[in-house]
Amino acid sequence: MAKPRPLPEDSASKPSSASQIDELKEKALRSLAQAATLEALEDLRVETLGRKSELSLLLRSLAHMSIEEKRDLGSKANAARQALEQAFDARAGELRRKFLLDKASAEDLSLPGLSLPAGRRHPLGIVAERILEVFSRLGFRYVEGREIETDENNFTMLNIPEDHPARDMHDTLYLETGAGQTSGKRLLRTHTTPVWIPIMKNSPPPWRVVTCGKVFRSEAVDATHLPVFHQIDAFYVDSHCSLADLKATLELWAGELFGRGTAIRFRPSYFPFTEPSCEVEVRCFRCQGKGCPTCKNGWIEMLGAGMIHPLILKRLGHDPKQWRGFAFGLGLERVAMVCWGVPDIRLFYENNLEFLEQFKGL
């Protein structure tokens, strides 16, 4: 007797991958709606879309299916994955907004906010700007100088002899010479006057130049001295320049900085790069020359000046009989201390907000 043939296997009798995808999607969406925190949502994302999730395993099983099944189920699975990713992103946005609202509701929004102090200009910058603005109106051109200079430019070309005390190692910060360097000793400039040299070497007179910058000296730190401070230096060379031009220029500068009518006076002095040389004093603008704790005798020593030494002009290729000029230099910190009665130069560099706040209206 012949055995009965087995009935063909009904495709509905085994789990349908298509329906499985739908079930996974619906299950994930229900769980997603119940996720109350971002941490729980992230755990659910890994469980649903991670490498070991049911959906990922189902996608990997497509390798054993026919081409038609791969096409149909692959398209459906990818669509489900994309829909779930969008749903997770949307839910994450909702939870973030809820977190911020909950945080805001727990705070008293009627309290005034904390105001941050606004940045302001440093007092030294204020003084420098005022001084340079005066010389700009007088036609002086601003030039930046180098902070690292050669011994020749810093000393020799400015008529400072080899045996001058300023060239001693105790006063000047020399730099180590590199291997094979033959251009002479290098140092941190001790004054801003070396800015003269390249200008006088590389361009014809007349010149009207002002510069401002850091200078460096091997100084012990105290109330009036620092190893790093600032100088302003200016020089003017023309065919008819005289000491009277220097006096008129400094009188105008003093009037602009300390008040119109401020008197100045010259006292004989010595600087290697000027001849004649003088110390310039300003009549005390606090006591009007009567004598006070600031000035002691009615006058305040402010800067050094003089007529540029003829040897410097000649050394740089210019006829001192045809060209004459004046020069002057001042310490920026010195002027600021006098202007505002600051007792200690170190206050400008200690970043003490209580001190700096005093200059906020300037």
Structure description:
The chain has 362 residues and is of the alpha+beta class. The protein folds into 2 domains: 22-101; 123-176 and 183-359, BirA Bifunctional Protein, domain 2. It is 38% helix and 19% strand. The chain has helices at residues 17-34, 38-49, 54-61, 67-105, 123-137, 151-154, 196-202, 243-258, 310-315, 332-340, 353-356; strands at 141-142, 148-150, 174-175, 186-188, 207-216, 228-238, 264-271, 274-283, 299-308, 324-331. α5 (123-137) packs across α10 (332-340). The radius of gyration is 41 Å and the shape is elongated. The termini are far apart.
Give the total of beta strands: 10
User: How many DSSP helices?
Assistant: 11
| Fraction of helical residues | 25-40%
Q: How many structural units, i.e. domains?
A: 2
Structural class: alpha+beta
Ends: how far apart?
119 Å
> What is the CATH-assigned architecture of the largest domain?
2-Layer Sandwich
Beta-strand content:
15-25%
Strands side by side in the biggest sheet: 1-5-6-10-9-8-7
What is the CATH superfamily classification of the largest domain? Bira Bifunctional Protein, Domain 2
Calculate the mean pLDDT score and round it: 84
User: What is the ordering of alpha helices and beta strands?
Assistant: HHHHHEEHEEHEEHEEEHEHH
Residue ranges: pLDDT <50 for 5 or more in a row? 1-15
- Looking at the structure, the CATH topology of the largest domain is BirA Bifunctional Protein, domain 2
Shape: elongated
The gyration radius over C-alpha positions equals: 41 Å
